Every structure is written in C-alpha cells, then in structure tokens.
Amino acid sequence: MVFVCMCVFTTKAQTSFDTKLNQLGISQENVTDWSDSTDITWPMPKCAYINLTGISKMPGSKTANYHVWVEAYDGHGNYFKKRAVANMQGRGSTIFAKKNFMLDFCNDEWICDDTPDMTFGNWVTQDGFHYKAFYHNLYRGVGIMGYRLTTYLPKGEDNMAEYGNAPTLKSLT
After folding, report:
1. Which of 75, 86, 137, 171 is the most exposed place for a label (fewest CB within 10 A)?
2. Which residue has better confidence, 116 or 143?
3. Helix, strand, or coil here: 112?
4. 56 - beta bridge partners?
5. Cα(64)–Cα(57) distance, integer angstroms
6. Is the pLDDT of residue 36 over 60?
7. Across residues 36-51, what is the average pLDDT?
8. CA quadruple 51, 56, 61, 65: dihedral sign
9. Helix (H) / strand (E) containing 6
10. Which of 123, 141, 124 minimizes the C-alpha distance to 132?
11. What is the pTM of this model?
12. Among residues 103, 133, 127, which one has the least CA distance to residue 114?
C-alpha cells in the first residue's frame, strides 16, 4: 500500500480542516480522536489528510525549527491533533518551490522530550516523519516505486516470482 499525504495549510482553527474534509466529501462520523494518546497505532492509510497550523509558510532552512500543530485524518475514522517541530529536510530540495520537510511530534510544549509512539500499518514505530515532495521528479513515480521495492526486498529471493522474467541473484551468479 502507498501512504499518500495531502497537506492543507490553514491559519484558522480546526473548523477549517473540518470544512475542507467536508468539501472533499469525507465523512467524519464515528471518529476516534487519538490526540491525547501517547501510543498511536493505525492501520495503513491509503490516503491521509494532514493540516498544519501555526505557521504561514514552510521552514526556509534545515536549522529553522517551526512550532506547528498537526491534524491528521486517515479517512477511516482515525484523527489526531499533535504538536510538532517542523524543519526543512534534505539538501537538494532547498532550491525548489516545493520542499521536503520533517515533523518531529511532541506531547510536551515543543521540547520533544516527551514524544508519542506512532505506528502506521507494519511500519516501525516512530515519533517523527520525513515528507518528500518529489518536486523535481519528472515521472512522479520514484517515491511510489521506492516504497514498493523496499516492501518487497525483505521477502527474499524465493518470493520474487511476481517479477516475472526479471533476473534474480541466483541467475546472475
């Protein structure tokens, strides 16, 4: 599965995020609010809707730490609003209009000494994530293919039949 992220930047309160989700036709009935939880475990979302508030633009450098509020909704009834420290991620995206960024989630007042354990699907539990823009990716498929490849690699040589006639390590030696 592919985790796709749509970021919506608003400077208004949560009602703006709710309004945007309603405009997209996304029902928010029977929502479980994980905001106060220190251990967030969700099934792998196919598409997550993320809203960043408290900033008017993305960080302009890797050393600039912006204090943001992050609202996330997976479209399947799971929601949270958490504090996070945001900064630019990577070196190459600094020159592009759409930049890579990183969010380190906090349970405390943006100190990040008390962080939540967040698990999505079978991913490793983490307290922060890198968001890749792939702005300069001409084909817009590098991220998706990279994710798929890294999920298949641990399966090993014996489970590579789905690749058809692709050469395997055994056939190359």
Report:
1. 171
2. 116
3. coil
4. none
5. 12
6. yes
7. 87
8. negative
9. strand 4-9
10. 141
11. 0.69
12. 127
How sure is the predictor about 100, in pLDDT bands with cuts at 50, 70 and 90?
confident
Q: Measured between alpha carbons, how far is 131 from 7 in angstroms, rounded to an integer?
A: 10
Closest C-alpha to 78, from 112, 50, 107, 109: 50
Helix-then-strand count for the chain, H and E: 3, 9
Q: Tell me which residue has tokens 């943001």.
A: 68
Backbone angles phi, psi at 48, to 5 degrees: -110, 140
Contact 120, 3 (CB under 8 A): yes
Nearest of 44, 58, 63, 77 to residue 7 by alpha carbon: 58
Return d(Cα 82, Cα 36) in angstroms, integer: 8
Kindly provide the b/e burial profile for residues 69-82, where b requires at least 16 CB atoms within 10 angstroms of the residue's own CB: ebbbbbeeebbbbb
Give me 83's structure tokens.
């504090």
As given in the structure block, the two tokens for residue 164 are: 């058809």
